[in-house]
Write a structure and sequence with these properties.
The structure is a single chain. By secondary structure, the chain is of the alpha/beta class. It has a domain at 30-259: 3-Layer(aba) Sandwich (Aspartate Aminotransferase, domain 2). Helix content is 37%, strand content 13%. The chain contains 12 helices and 13 strands. The chain has helices spanning 30-42, 52-64, 75-86, 106-110, 129-135, 155-165, 216-225, 250-281, 309-318, 336-339, 362-371, 383-403; strands spanning 68-72, 93-96, 114-117, 140-146, 168-172, 180-181, 184-185, 192-196, 209-213, 287-288, 300-305, 324-325, 372-376. The strands form 3 sheets. It has a 7-stranded mixed beta sheet with strand order 1-9-8-5-4-2-3, sandwiched between helices. A 4-stranded antiparallel beta sheet has the order 10-11-13-12. Strand 4, helix 6 (155-165) and strand 5 (168-172) form a beta-alpha-beta unit. The longest helix has 32 residues, at 250-281. It is globular and about 75 Å long. Bound molecules: pyridoxal-5'-phosphate. This is DegT/DnrJ/EryC1/StrS family aminotransferase. One of its GO terms (molecular function) is transaminase activity. The modification N6-(pyridoxal phosphate)lysine is found at residue 201. One of its GO terms (biological process) is polysaccharide biosynthetic process. Pfam families: DegT_DnrJ_EryC1 (PF01041).
Length: 404
């Protein structure tokens, strides 16, 4: 049997796979170059007087089948817009997941809300509706669900729960562009859907964010929140409420408009490659490919192991297939900002009396500490790239099974 690369053997793969960290794993073409040049040559880089951001908002809303879209400067900003639209009283609670990017959670704290973490499904890492229901209190104002790695969360169940309890539902779709949830896309079941254009997402302009909603009042509040509360739709010349500058630039919008034309193909190509990987490893014992009911859009490709994720991930990475054990090193609530209440000065506000102990969300902790290995996924993986990934996984699987 071939020696593992981690023990000095020859790696399955010696050339790097396409990666989002350079041109090999991104789809930026002449059209994006022309779009950026068009804006620069126009002399107008600001959306306040330009046309590109407004056009992008219209195009994104119609792609998603939404009435309104508001562009902003990042995915975190998009989530901040959504929480600001919820407009919690200080100390109000928003229920969310412990497995995500921190951009899901910090906007809650920035609006002086308390993030309440509900546990996740052990199979997908997405919020478990029963755990969300158990976390609802009289102070709950909203549920903020994440479609982790591109696999839709049980959003219709969460919708029903929110309706029953009079809560707003926010969808964090940063990892889930065009993921079908029934006959609509992720982002359209909640009151607000939030998207990111950061470098590693399905489409990118370096940074940027978009929200969609059908609610005119929520849309207006979010637009005002990108623009210091300054109402450009009236001639009041005043600041209507506390808000920041989260405006997207014309350059970002022009590039994103081209990226939008590539999005469906990006999703299709990610799905094709992932299906090939799943078929190639489906027979391996003790290793579970992601569950896919035709709805996974594969921002990443998560694998579930019975245990031993750290040696396993190190061995696979050494074979030339980089991967991350756990996705996170700890659930979000373990971060100093939350568990240590590192918020506003030494006050701990608004988390005084709130504890985030070890064991708060046992399934999330099990996934992060024992089960999850995440492979970066990419639309530019060729068939032979995926063959190499299959071969590397099979090699590691056999070798480590024999060792144990
Ligand atoms: C990337 C990401 C964010 C944050 O987006 P930024 O554009 O990096 O601010 C939020 N939530 C999830 C699930 C993400 O993947």
């Amino acid at each position: 049997m071939p020696e593992l690369a981690v023990n000095g053997g020859t790696p399955v793969r010696s050339t790097p796979l396409p990666s989002v960290f350079n041109a090999s794993g991104r789809r930026f073409g002449d059209e994006e170059v022309a779009a950026a040049e068009r804006v620069l040559r126009s002399g107008m880089l600001s959306a306040t007087w330009g046309t590109e951001v407004a056009a992008l908002e219209g195009e994104f809303a119609s792609l998603l089948g939404a009435v309104h879209s508001v562009a902003c400067s990042s995915g975190t900003a998009a989530l901040h817009l959504a929480v600001a639209a919820v407009n919690p009283e200080p100390g109000d609670e928003i229920i969310t997941t412990p497995i995500s990017d921190m951009g899901t959670v910090f906007p809650i704290l920035m609006q002086n809300g308390v993030p309440v973490f509900a546990d996740v499904d052990l199979a997908t890492g997405n919020l478990d509706p029963a755990a969300v229901e158990a976390a609802i209190t009289p102070r709950t104002k909203a549920v903020l669900a994440v479609h982790l790695f591109g696999k839709p969360a049980p959003i219709h169940e969460l919708r029903a729960l929110c309706d029953q309890h009079g809560l707003l539902l926010i969808e964090d779709c940063a990892q889930a562009y065009l993921a079908p949830v029934g006959d609509v896309y992720a982002g359209r079941v909640g009151d607000i859907g939030c998207f990111s254009l950061q470098q590693s997402k399905h489409i990118s302009a370096g940074d940027g964010g978009l929200v969609v909603t059908d609610d005119a009042a929520l849309a207006r509040r979010m637009r005002l929140f990108t623009d210091k509360g300054w109402p450009r739709d009236t001639d009041e010349r005043t600041y209507l409420f506390l808000a920041l500058n989260y405006r997207m630039t014309e350059l970002t919008a022009a590039v994103t408009r081209v990226q939008l034309t590539r999005l469906q193909q990006v999703v299709d190509d990610r799905r094709t490659g992932a299906a090939k990987l799943t078929a190639g490893i489906g027979d391996l014992v003790g290793l579970l490919p992601p569950s896919d009911d035709g709805d996974h859009v594969y921002w990443q490709y998560p694998l579930l192991l019975e245990d031993g994720i750290h040696p396993w991930a190190a061995a696979l990475t050494a074979e030339g297939v980089p991967c991350t054990p756990g996705y996170l090193t700890a659930p979000l609530y373990a971060a100093p900002a939350l568990r240590g209440k590192a918020t506003y000065g030494g006050s701990g506000f608004p988390l005084q009396g709130v504890e985030y102990p070890v064991g708060l969300c046992p399934n999330a902790e099990t996934l992060i500490n024992e089960r999850l290995v995440v492979l970066p996924w990419n639309e530019n993986y060729s068939g032979s790239d995926v063959d190499d990934i299959v071969a590397a996984i099979r090699k590691v699987h056999t070798a480590l099974a024999l060792e144990s």
